[in-house]
Structure formats: C-alpha cells, structure tokens
Amino acid sequence: MPRTAKSTTKTTSKSKATAKSRVTKSKSTAKNVDTDGFGKSALSDEVVLEVKNLETHFTTRWGTVKAVDGVSYHVRRGETLGIVGESGSGKSVTAFSLMRLVPSPPGKIVGGEVNLNGRELLGLSENEMTQVRGGEISMILQDPMQALNPVFNIENQVGEAIKIHQGLKGDSLWKKIVDSLQKVRIPAPDTRAKDFPHQLSGGMRQRVVGAIGISSAPSVIIADEPTTSLDVTIQAAYLRLLRQIQQEEGVAIIFITHDFGIVAKMCDRVAVMYAGRIVEVSDVRTIFNEPLHEYTKALIGSVPKLEEKTGRLPQIEGQPPLLYDLPEGDAFAPRSPLKFDEEDAKGRPPLVEVKPGHWVQLSKSSVADYDKFSHLIEK
Ligand SMILES: Nc1ncnc2c1ncn2[C@@H]1O[C@H](COP(=O)(O)OP(=O)(O)O)[C@@H](O)[C@H]1O
Ligand SMILES: [Mg+2]
C-alpha cells in the first residue's frame, strides 16, 4: 500500500467526527483536526471564500484557451483546500483570477463570481482590489527568490506590505515587522530584519515570504506550489510551519500542488483539476480511499515512493489535452482506461454530489461506478 494512503487512514475517525459536526453545528465553532502529525487545522463551518462558475480565457493565435472553464468551490475558515492536477490544468490561473492578477491581455476573466467574506471581488475597482490583495487574501509564491526583491532588506519588504494594508509607521511598524518574523519562527528577528535576501538560507527566505503573507492577518492564503524549490527537509519544516500559523491565526489555505503526497499531510479537502475543470472534490480521506474519477485514481497511483521522492511531476499515461482545442464533453475520456462512450464527447458531464461533500464529474468514460450514481443526475 502506498505510504500516503496508509497515513490517511490514520485520521479516519477524527475526520468523520468533523464531518458530522459540520452538519449539526450551524455556528462557527473551531474544530481541531490533525492530518498526519503535520499540525492541526482550525476547521469551522464558516465559508470565507466562495468561487462560482469561474471562467478565465486567454486569447492566443491558436485560438481561445479556456484555462479556467467553469470552476466552483468554497473554503471554510481555518480549512486547507488542496487543488491538485498535472501541470497546465489551470491551478495557477484559477489562483491568479481570485487575486485579479491575470495578465490582460492575453487573459480575461469572462464569467463567474468570487465572494470573499461576503464581498464580490470581480466587480471591485482596481483601487479597492489593491486593498484586498495582500490584505484579506494573500498569495505565497512558489519561489522565495522570485518573491523577494534582492536590493531591499527584510525590514523593508515585510514593512511595505504592512504599510500598504495597515498604515503603520515608526515604532508600531517596526513592532509589527518583528512580530511577523517571530510568527514564522525566524530566530533573532530584530537582527535578521536588517539582512538582505541573499544573506538568508533558502528555508529562512521561504519563512520571510510567509511572514509577508500573514502580516496583514488575511482570511485566505493561497500557497501556489510553495515547496517546489526547496529540499525535502526544509519542505517538511515549512509545511509544518504553515499548519502552525493556520492553527494560531485561523486562516484558510488554498494549497496548490501536483504532489499528492503533500496533499495527504496538509489538506482537509481536495479539489482535483483537469483541463480547466474540477473533476472531483471531497475530504482528503475519501479522495485517497474511495476516489471515483479515473483521473484522481491515476494521480494517486503516480505518487512517488519515499525513497524516490524528488519533487518531480506525477506521470500518468497519455498527454494532457490542448486547452485551445478542447472537446465540449469529457476532456479526460481519451486518456481514461475505461471504454470510451460516444455520449461523453457531446456535452459537459455534470458535477454530481454522490455523497455529502463528495462531488464527481460523472461520465461513463471516466467513472467506473457511473451506473451506481447516474440516478443522481438532474434531468
Ligand atoms: N499568459 C498566458 N497566455 C496564454 N495561455 C496561458 C497563459 N498563462 C496560462 N495559460 C494557459 O493556461 C493553462 C493553465 O495554466 P496554469 O494555471 O499555469 O496551469 P497549472 O498551474 O495547473 O500548471 C496553461 O496550460 C496555458 O495554456
Ligand atoms: Mg501552476
């Protein structure tokens, strides 16, 4: 049995208790769930972010690229939602769309809603959005060197974010900078603040990026492949730190990764993306133990074993589709090991809730248990 699948079963009873409490409790009561010893998350029922039918297209000379093609999900306070999928499946463009940072042209958000703490973001002015960005919602970038400016010291870079969003100056600004560095466990923060990025180790730089991310006490942090450029030991320490911060601050994390091994350690729920659409969503235990979509199964099957864990991309049979030439129907059907069904080429398969909280894009070509659930499809 793969290591990840085994470690997930360990959390079974706890996850069940949480699922129940979500249904019965209407007030937002924080629940502690420890996923695989990587720290607890402060789950609650309160939805902080809701994305509905988001569509982001790019105009290219080959045609319109539907990078995000009708994506919907929600994230609760203190929850970690994993977004997984192969490279090119639209994970980052979805994240950039929430932040309204899609390069335009060639990109454009052409449809949908993004509701953060009860406020619709897609209609905000650019000025209002600047306040939201790095305030209520912030993003931790993949590469700490890319996220930090080499010519400014740490004090300046952490301070900049705080100045913009909290208007602090002088002593109170300095206090807040040191406090943010302390929260990400940077030793001797008042001395370290004077350092430049190149004077810090890779792990410390990653922490500084984390400090900038949490300095404004956001309700949502988007971490886009945050560990790719770090070695395995630093990765583990950083992931544990993210969980600690989450526990202390009650922040929701959207954790974007292609690594299902990390998902098992970090996430409460998982959304699996393929060709700009979500094909399956559920709690992490169900995704590992009872995946229904063949793409989810393939991704889980491709998790590298511990000894060969090199952070490389999962490899599954066949090629991801060309996003400018997508079939209207089930995009995974041509790669699925199941028998191809002509019907699936015609229209978009519906996303069906097969069990409370477990949604799957239901098509004959990609879901072996199709017949078991087909009665749930709304006619
Ligand atoms: N600037 C761009 N111009 C044209 N197409 C783009 C651009 N950025 C992203 N895309 C398209 O969006 C798709 C999804 O990209 P992305 O969200 O970065 O994938 P992921 O993060 O899942 O690896 C890509 O396959 C690419 O075709
Ligand atoms: Mg990406």
List strands and helices in order, with pairings:
Elements: H1 3-9, H2 12-24, E1 31-34, E2 40-43, E3 47-60, E4 63-76, E5 80-84, H3 91-98, E6 107-116, E7 119-120, H4 126-132, E8 137-140, H5 144-147, H6 154-166, H7 170-183, H8 189-192, H9 202-214, E9 220-224, H10 232-249, E10 252-257, H11 260-266, E11 269-274, E12 277-283, H12 284-289, H13 294-301, E13 351-355, E14 358-361, H14 370-373
Parallel strand pairs: 5-10, 5-11, 8-9, 9-10
Antiparallel strand pairs: 1-2, 3-4, 3-6, 6-7, 11-12, 12-14, 13-14
The structure holds adenosine-5'-diphosphate (ADP) and magnesium ion (MG).
3D structure, described in words:
The protein has 379 residues and is of the alpha/beta class. It has two domains: 3-136 and 220-376, P-loop containing nucleotide triphosphate hydrolases (Rossmann fold, 3-Layer(aba) Sandwich), CATH 3.40.50.300; 149-217, no CATH class. The chain is built from 14 helices and 14 strands. It has helices spanning 3-9, 12-24, 91-98, 126-132, 144-147, 154-166, 170-183, 189-192, 202-214, 232-249, 260-266, 284-289, 294-301, 370-373; strands spanning 31-34, 40-43, 47-60, 63-76, 80-84, 107-116, 119-120, 137-140, 220-224, 252-257, 269-274, 277-283, 351-355, 358-361. Strands 8-9-10-5-11-12-14-13 form an eight-stranded mixed beta sheet, with helices on both faces. It has a four-stranded antiparallel beta sheet with strand order 4-3-6-7. A two-stranded antiparallel sheet has the order 1-2. α10 links the parallel β9 (220-224) and β10. The chain is elongated and about 65 Å long. The structure holds adenosine-5'-diphosphate (ADP) and magnesium ion. Adenosine-5'-diphosphate binds next to β3, β4 and α3.
